Amino acid sequence: MAGFEGFDTSVERAWTDFQVRLADIIAAMREDDLLALELGEESTVEGFVPCVQFLAWGAGEVRCEVPSNAYLDPRHRLSAADEQRLVELGWHRPTRQPDDEPDAGSPAFFVDKPANWADQLAAMAVTVFRETWSVPHPSFLRTEAVGTIEALSIDPVELDDEESFALDPGAAVVPRDDEHLYQLVALTLARLFDEPPGDDEHSDFLLALGRVVGFVGPHLDGGEVQVRVPLVRDVSDRTRASELIADLNRRWPHLKFTLTTDRVEVWAAVLANPYVPQHLIDMLEQLFAFVRTVDDAFADRFGGHLEGLSEPDPAPMEVDHGELTLPPPAPQPLRQMELFSDPGEQTLFDEPN
């Protein structure tokens, strides 16, 4: 039980640190500043993902809102008990429907507090994410800020090795940025290998797979997490090699084999946005099954040499850190807030009269 107690403690610490940073940002908000916290997955046409938004207005006031069922995706709808809990925490019930005439209230659950009540507002927000929507760790949230607080966005929370078990392999997560995607891939690999990968330089992850070496590259700007394994070099008969490549692509439909000049490689990729850990796990299992068939005889059929280690690796499939460097991320425009149809037109927050 000691290990689980340590895990629980680390999760509590992460939420506590997140709440403190959130309170600092709320306290720094100025009129018309907007801060949105939301679950890291895309909203659908059916409604919004769990979120809490803060809007600064007037003389040092902050309105905090939680979307009602009129806005939420059916998967995240509030039960009667959830709604009562929000009231107990300090929110007021919605005063109207989204299409009704504006009033001093809101079509969402709302509360108005002076900015110096930032600690209470932060605690309320964290509680609703944890209790109502069962968000296991603040790393599953993304933040967006508009106004004077843009430079104060909450930094991604680093997870330690034990906290990797808080990662739901089947959950779709929309990475906040390249750093977050890299962290998610690192946590996924840590579930598969005895030694978790390092992340000191944020280069591609290096996988020693028996006689060959593979590279896992999380590239948010390219929209994929790619895995590349060089197989054969110095191919002498490209015509024969092309026939063999075609046969491999038929027999392993989830992998892509390529012939470039005199080299044979195998590639695979999963979507990076949203990122689903189980997709990477399933793809790596396919890759592992194939590389078990790769040996010198495999390279001989291509009239080339095996691209990899001269002897079988004593600890196959051990994760280490590679030497490849991630390409610089392409500049991305600020994604429009989920609860706004237009950045200049408020559809959830209504400035109190």
From TrEMBL:
Domain spans labelled TY-Chap central: 179-305
Top-level taxonomic group: Bacteria
Domain TY-Chap N-terminal: residue ranges: 13-141
Region described as Disordered: 309-353
Transmembrane portions of the chain: none
InterPro entries linked to this entry: TY-Chap_M (IPR054343), TY-Chap_N (IPR054344)
Name of the featured protein: YbjN domain-containing protein
Species assigned in the record: Rhodococcus spelaei
